[in-house]
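If you are new to this repository, start here. Below is one unmodified record pulled from the training split, so you can see the exact layout before writing a loader.
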Amino acid sequence: MNAAPDKTPDPTGSAKDAGWEVGVRETVALPLPVVWQYLVSKGIPIWLGDGEFRGVKGFHYEMADGVRGEVLAYAEGSKIRVSWRPDDWPHDTVLVLSVKEVEGGTTVAIHHQQLANREERRMMLGHWKNVVGALAGALEH
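And here is the target side for that same chain:
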């Protein structure tokens, strides 16, 4: 006899079998190609940190603040997926930066996956809100 599936909803930000996650997005009144070009050039220090980064699958990066990882996927004009690990964390996470053309501009989204717990999620929610806000502010000036 099979047990009934658990119908208890997951807590906000908890992904079944994948830890915790958080997503933040903001729309700017600029065309997607302009936004994308900024994100993969002058915007890198805002969303990833100071250091060398290349949009090539398999490229390993380490930023000045100790965040390191590898480019897992790179879709020109659409999405960058990297492993992301600060030097004081015992585990890797996955960070996805994406853009989408919408009416009136482009939405910039950051999705952070495989966070260890609710506290990491809370901390990263504040961080990514600040990052997306800084990106939007820089793009609109």
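Two things worth knowing about this chain: The helical segments are 32-39, 44-47, 118-139. The domain at 19-139 is CATH 3.30.530.20 (Alpha-D-Glucose-1,6-Bisphosphate; Chain A, domain 4).
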